[in-house]
């Protein structure tokens, strides 16, 4: 049984049924394999495998390379079938349907419009197509008596810094039509936020929220640039912030840790870390600490009071779901339902929404967890 279809239990409670918030989830990393097969057939795109099951296996095997660069190569396939308005709308609709099936009540879906122009769409048309799919799925959920809200995060590819301002302007242009924030994605090392400073200046002048991929494939200098040059309100992954922590000593009951100035700043200002445990393992983001989920610095960051959130990053490539990620952490670190609730409250508080809507999410999470 695949991760999206499997039920995960903790303390006898279905994690799938609990209300959850997803902040770091890539549209081109969350396609259904069968959808890829069908869309590829429509446009004549050759795939590495011709049926959905083998295609799923191909994605998962290629994604376990231990390198972000290798991990990103799988996106050539998914992006390839997302080049028409109909294809984008279908992928977005199914994306939201799958979030809802996993118990997500608020999700932010990030994607890079500049990657979807090969068949003649304009940047604005790509955003409109994705939003049409989102709107259709949300309406379907509501018609069935459910609840979900979804916002777009427009990503600019950091290896194309000359286009970042255009994508920033695109995001602001659609701020009243479903776009809630801006992101930078792609190869992190060698492309700090400082190379896109003009775009971030523009976004700041427009009071538009920003998250930046940092602390995944590069270290503290990348995080520092995301905060200083990018004015990031959240850090995409951010796990290598743990490099700024020093374990002074340990005994049978406690670990004593000192924080550097950078990590202290992130903690004190409650800047959310958008961690994605399985993906962080696959891309080598936590290689310094080990090779299993139990080696992930997530628990250390959580125990120290950082605003940690749990995410999937790319559900297809990692063969995962948000419920699965939470179950993996609970198994690795002995978490209880109260801990899982704390992660959802962290994410809701960090959502790129007006305060009133964030408070509504917080209430929905509290009610949902109290009901079990």
From TrEMBL:
Taxonomic superkingdom: Bacteria
Cofactor(s) the protein requires to work: Zn(2+)
Organism of provenance: Gryllotalpicola koreensis
The keyword Hydrolase is assigned to this record: yes
InterPro entries: A_deaminase_dom (IPR001365), Ado/ade_deaminase (IPR006330), Metal_Hydrolase (IPR032466)
Pfam family, one: A_deaminase
Enzyme class: hydrolase
Protein name: adenosine deaminase
Residues forming coiled coils: none
Alphabetized UniProt keyword annotations: Hydrolase, Metal-binding, Zinc
NCBIfam families: PRK09358.1-2 (NF006847)
Annotated family: Belongs to the metallo-dependent hydrolases superfamily. Adenosine and AMP deaminases family.
Adenosine deaminase domain ranges (all copies): 19-366
UniProt-listed Enzyme Commission number(s): 3.5.4.4
């Amino acid at each position: 049984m695949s991760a999206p279809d499997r039920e995960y239990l903790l303390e006898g409670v279905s994690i799938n049924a609990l209300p959850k918030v997803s902040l770091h989830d890539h549209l081109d990393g969350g396609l259904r394999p069968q959808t890829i097969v069908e869309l590829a057939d429509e446009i004549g795109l050759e795939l590495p495998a011709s049926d959905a099951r083998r295609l799923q296996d191909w994605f998962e095997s290629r994604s376990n390379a231990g390198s972000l660069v290798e991990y990103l190569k799988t996106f050539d396939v998914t992006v390839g079938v997302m080049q028409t308005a109909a294809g984008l709308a279908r992928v977005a609709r199914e994306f939201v349907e799958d979030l809802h099936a996993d118990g997500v009540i608020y999700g932010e879906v990030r994607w890079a419009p500049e990657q979807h122009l090969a068949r003649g769409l304009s940047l604005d048309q790509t955003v409109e197509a994705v939003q049409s799919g989102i709107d259709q799925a949300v309406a379907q959920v509501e018609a069935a008596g459910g609840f979900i809200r979804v916002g777009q995060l427009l990503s600019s590819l950091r290896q194309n810094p000359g286009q970042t301002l255009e994508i920033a302007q695109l995001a602001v242009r659609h701020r009243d039509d479903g776009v809630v924030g801006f992101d930078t994605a792609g190869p992190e090392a060698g492309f700090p936020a400082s190379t896109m400073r003009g775009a971030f200046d523009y976004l700041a002048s427009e009071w538009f929220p920003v998250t930046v991929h940092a602390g995944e494939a590069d270290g503290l200098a990348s995080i520092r640039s995301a905060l200083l040059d990018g004015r990031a309100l959240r850090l995409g992954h951010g796990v290598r912030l743990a490099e700024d922590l020093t374990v002074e000593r340990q005994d049978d009951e406690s670990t004593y840790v000192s924080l550097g100035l950078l990590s202290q700043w992130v903690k004190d200002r409650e800047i959310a870390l958008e961690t994605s445990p399985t993906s962080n393992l696959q891309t080598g983001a936590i290689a310094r600490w080990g090779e299993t989920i139990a080696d992930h610095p997530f628990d250390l960051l959580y125990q120290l009071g950082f605003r940690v959130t749990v995410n999937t990053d790319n559900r297809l490539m990692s063969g995962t779901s948000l419920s699965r990620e939470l179950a993996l952490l609970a198994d690795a670190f002995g978490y209880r339902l109260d801990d899982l609730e704390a992660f959802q409250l962290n994410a809701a508080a960090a959502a790129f929404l007006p305060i009133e809507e964030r408070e509504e999410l917080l209430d929905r999470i509290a009610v949902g967890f109290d009901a079990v």
